[in-house]
Amino acid sequence: MTVEETLVLVKPDGVSRGLTGEILRRFEAKGYVITGLRLVHADRALLTEHYLEHAGKPFFEPLVEFMESGPIVAVRLSGERVIAGVRSLTGATDPTSAAPGTIRGDFGRDWGAAVQQNLVHASDSVESARRELDLWFS
Ligand code: IDP
Ligand code: MG
Fold first, then answer.
1. How far is CA 41 from CA 47, 59, 111, 136, in A?
2. C-alpha to C-alpha distance for 5 and 35, rounded to whole angstroms
3. Which atom of ligand 1 is nearest to the CA of 90?
4. Which residues are catalytic?
């Protein structure tokens, strides 16, 4: 058994819509433990580093602008297989097709650029979790 850690970001749409509590509630209800919590107005340097794997893609620049548009809640979560578990609670990237019962499926829609405002970011592997936690909780 390996306890993992992961990074969740409640994106500016989640914070401005007042969904931070509901989103965190779901992770806590699943049994994951919040071990870090910060309200951050992220700058371009941090967001560029965070989304490095998407640099050069057509949605990169609008994505960074969206993420700069308001405060983000950064969350460090801990638990057995928390990385996969949180991705599962988060749902598919496109909020319109994300399954009901997931955060994106229950609260996300096609506002603005269709796939952009999907409420949460969640690390997708042990390596990205380590890298992203270092960025947001250094
Ligand atoms: P993920 O957040 O489900 O891991 P990624 O493919 O890593 O999805 O994309 C990062 C973020 O970039 C997404 O959460 C979404 O906000 C945005 N994004 C992804 N694809 C598109 C797109 O085709 N158009 C606009 N934004 C996108
Ligand atoms: Mg991703």
1. 10, 21, 21, 11
2. 9
3. 3
4. 121
